[in-house]
Amino acid sequence: MMVATFANHYGAMLFRKTVGAGCTLRPVPRNLSSSCGTCAFFSGPFREEYLNQNLEAVFEEKDDKYIKIYES
After folding, report:
1. Residue numbers of the domain that contains 60
2. Which contacts qualify for 49-54: CB closer than 8 Å, 24 or more apart?
3. pLDDT averaged over consecutive 10-residue blocks of the chain (72 residues)?
4. What percent of the chain is helix, strand and coil (3-state, nearest 5)?
5. Residue 38 in contact with residue 9, Cβ under 8 Å?
6. CB 40 within 8 Å of CB 46
7. Is 18 in contact with 52 (CB distance < 8 Å)?
8. How many structural domains comprise the chain?
9. How far apart are CA 44 and CA 53, in angstroms?
10. pTM of this prediction?
11. Using an 8 Å Cβ cutoff, are 68 and 59 in contact?
């Protein structure tokens, strides 16, 4: 599972629209930081077309830990 964090809620909504099915918006896990408190959980690889100006970081969830794979 992948987790994307955003600078604001609008960026999270744009991300969900771009990714489509399989992407859900949820509160940010406590051990990750985010300016807006909303993150997107999605499956599959992180793609370049998912980038938007409000995207802060993308993490891959492995063994109950988050590994940062992208940071703006």
Report:
1. 2-71
2. 49/18, 50/4, 50/15, 50/18, 50/19, 52/11, 52/14, 52/15, 52/18, 53/11, 54/6, 54/7, 54/8, 54/10, 54/11, 54/12, 54/14, 54/15
3. 92 92 91 81 89 90 91 88
4. 20, 40, 40
5. yes
6. no
7. yes
8. 1
9. 21
10. 0.89
11. yes
- CB proximity list for 40: less than 8 A, separation 6 or greater: 3, 4, 6, 12, 15, 16, 19, 23, 24, 25, 26
Residues 6+ apart with CB under 8 A from 20: none
Contact 35, 7 (CB under 8 A): yes
Cα 41 to its chain centre, rounded Å, is 6
Q: Which residues contact 63 (CB under 8 A, 6 or more apart)?
A: none
